[in-house]
Amino acid sequence: MSSSFQQDLDQLQPGFYRVIITMTDNGNSGAFPTTDQGNKQDGGCTPNTWDYFSGASLPSTAALALSRARGNLRFKQVINQLTSLADCQILDIAMTGETNGDTQATVCNFTVKYDRDAFLPLTGTKQGTATVGQDANSQDMDTPAKVIRNAVAAGLYNGTTESMRVYDPISGTGTQQSVTANAATSNSALVALVGVTQISGTTLV
């Protein structure tokens, strides 16, 4: 006897995407410099604030503490770009190379979950009165993974200033400071340093 069950197409069908930001190009003239050359481009991208560390692992200088804050600000900008596409969750964050509060990460990995990734705006689709264009490399964003990659790169690229808590090695506490994070390379170059892969095997919820 055949089943009368029919799948509801309005059920949530979440998509999971693994994001990898490669930050090994970290010389003074690289995409993710580890020292400030006066242009506020150091710090990489990291969710780990100064108080993630403790004791001897805390940032040892004011310059390194400020560099970490810039990395935090970039990560926040990346999340802002991803949530501007649609509501999402950030899962399974993993950092490479970040051994203490002084060291800048070389790789940032995380998973982003969209409940309805089919609604992410691809190139050529209408958004209000505008049509979605191409990515920063002038390539069509014809899959959700490419849309996510472009959003992550935009978060890394867009310079921003914000009031943040920054560790003070002298007092051993956080102080409120104005923090600016700028990009050391072009938006186009940053797209090439971001990898996004759909995680297979996702099921209906």
Task: Explain what the structure shows.
With 205 residues, the protein is α+β, with helices and mostly antiparallel strands. The chain has helices at 62-85, 144-157, 187-192; strands at residues 15-22, 88-96, 107-114, 126-127, 130-131, 160-168, 173-181, 194-198. It has one domain (15-198). Helices cover 21% and strands 25% of the residues. The chain has a 4-stranded antiparallel sheet with strand order 2-3-1-8. A two-stranded antiparallel ribbon has the order 4-5. It has a two-stranded antiparallel ribbon with strand order 6-7. The longest helix is centred in the middle third of the chain and has 24 residues, at 62-85.
H/E element order: EHEEEEHEEHE
Report the total helices.
3
Number of domains: 1
Q: Assess the beta-strand content as a share of residues.
A: 25-35%
Main sheet: strands, sense, barrel: 4 strands, antiparallel
Strand order of the largest sheet: 2-3-1-8
Give helix % range: 10-25%
Low-confidence segments, ≥5 residues, pLDDT <50? none
Task: Please count the beta strands (DSSP E, at least 2 residues each).
Answer: 8
Q: Provide the residue-averaged pLDDT.
A: 92
Tell me the overall shape.
globular
Structural class category: alpha+beta
Determine the N-to-C terminus distance.
27 Å
Work out the radius of gyration: 19 Å
